[in-house]
Specification:
Layout (H helix, E strand, L loop, with lengths): L7 H17 L4 H13 L11 H10 L4 H15 L21
Helix pairs in contact: 2-4, 3-4
C-alpha cells in the first residue's frame, strides 16, 4: 500500500501501523504511543517539508483509521511540526527502524 505523497520511511511506518490496526481491530493505545514516540524522537522525519498534513491524513484513512483517528494523528503532526511536545503514555522509546529518506 504505497502513497506517493509521503517519503518511503513514513509510508512504510504507516503501513506497519495499519497492519497492527487491522490485527487489533482498531487504533489502540500502543499504536498511538508508537506514532507519538517516533514523532518526538525523530522530529526531523516529520518536518513540514517531508510530511504534508493532507498527505498524512489520506494515508491514515487508506490504512483503515476512522476520520476522527486520522484527524487526531494530523493534530499530533501539526504540534510536532510547530515544536510542541507529545506525551506517549506507555511506549516512550519507540523509533521506527528506517532512517528518514530525502
Amino acid at each position: 500500500m504505497s502513497h506517493s505523497d509521503l517519503p518511503a520511511d513514513i509510508d512504510e511506518f504507516m503501513d506497519f501501523i495499519g497492519m497492527n490496526i487491522a490485527a487489533s481491530g482498531g487504533f489502540v493505545w500502543n499504536e498511538r504511543d508508537r506514532i507519538k514516540s517516533d514523532m518526538m524522537l525523530v522530529r526531523h522525519r516529520w518536518s513540514p517539508s517531508r510530511v504534508p498534513s493532507e498527505a498524512l491524513r489520506n494515508k491514515c484513512r487508506a490504512i483503515g483509521m476512522t476520520v476522527k483517528d486520522a484527524d487526531e494523528v494530523v493534530d499530533w503532526l501539526r504540534k510536532t511540526q510547530s515544536g510542541r511536545r507529545l506525551r506517549p503514555n506507555h511506549i516512550k522509546n519507540f523509533r521506527w527502524h528506517q532512517d528518514p529518506t530525502p
